[in-house]
């Protein structure tokens, strides 16, 4: 019983220098409400607004979600988002780069089921396009389109024993389910 009173007595002392947010988080108020992550368009615009010194061609490419020769790694992330993988390349050459980043662009569709209570629309992924970005000293030296794979092709690969394909189908299905259905 005394321990509870001591803790409650210390709250005003701790609250003054650290603020109420600390108390709420520490004493069970949970995390402060976080805002939703920015959309790709918002991310791109924020980067361009924060870097007025960037070359005009680079700024245009970022706003369009594209890449241009010589872009820095930070600019690539501003344009395309976070890569799904990054690796160091050995042996490295300026043509092949010293690192490779893989980005994915997921195509989503909708599936509508008609039931007694009305229709229900859910978002599904229909395929994915992978792009490899080659960098040398943190500057883009090449971009390779690795192609588009449909959901059906990934599922077939999974069923024939491709565990990476199974993992990817599961991951993309989860991402599709966590997002809102596409607008018609």
Give a quick precis of the structure.
The protein is of the alpha+beta class and 184 residues long.
What labels would you give this structure?
184 residues, 32% strand, 42% helix, alpha+beta
**Residue runs with pLDDT of under 50 for 5 or more positions:** 1-33
Written as H for each helix and E for each strand, in order along the chain, the element string is HHHHHEEEEHH
Strand % is 25-35%
Gross morphology is flat
> What's the count of strands?
4
Major sheet details: 4 strands, antiparallel
Radius of gyration: 24 Å
Structure class:
alpha+beta
Task: Give the rounded overall mean pLDDT.
Answer: 79
Helix content: 40-55%
How large is the count of helical segments? 7
Give the strand line-up of the largest sheet: 1-2-3-4
Q: What is the end-to-end distance? A: 60 Å
Question: Would you give an account of this structure?
Answer:
This protein is of the alpha+beta class and 184 residues long. It contains 7 helices and 4 strands; from the N terminus they run αααααββββαα. β2 and β3 (118-136) form a beta hairpin. The longest helix has 17 residues, at 2-18. The chain starts with a helix and ends in a 6-residue tail after the last helix.
Write the layout of secondary structure elements.
Elements lengths: L1 H17 L1 H7 L13 H11 L5 H9 L8 H8 L4 E9 L3 E19 L2 E19 L2 E12 H9 L3 H16 L6
Antiparallel strand pairs: 1-2, 2-3, 3-4
Helix pairs in contact: 1-2, 3-4, 3-5, 4-5, 6-7
């Amino acid at each position: 019983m005394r321990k509870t009173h001591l803790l409650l007595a210390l709250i005003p002392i701790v609250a003054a220098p650290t603020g109420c947010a600390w108390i709420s988080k520490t004493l069970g108020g949970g995390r402060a409400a976080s805002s939703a992550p920015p959309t790709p368009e918002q991310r791109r615009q924020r980067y361009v607004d924060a870097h007025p010194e960037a070359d005009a061609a680079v700024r245009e490419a970022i706003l369009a979600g594209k890449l241009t020769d010589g872009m820095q790694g930070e600019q690539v992330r501003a344009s395309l988002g976070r890569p799904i993988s990054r690796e160091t390349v050995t042996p490295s050459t300026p043509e092949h780069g010293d690192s490779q980043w893989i980005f994915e662009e997921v195509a989503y569709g909708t599936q509508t089921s008609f039931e007694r209570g009305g229709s229900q629309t859910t978002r599904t992924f229909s395929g994915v396009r992978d792009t490899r970005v080659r960098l040398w000293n943190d500057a883009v030296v090449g971009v390779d389109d690795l192609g588009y794979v449909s959901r059906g092709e990934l599922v077939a690969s999974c069923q024939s024993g491709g565990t990476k394909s199974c993992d990817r189908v599961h991951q993309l299905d989860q991402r599709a389910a966590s997002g809102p259905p596409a607008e018609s």
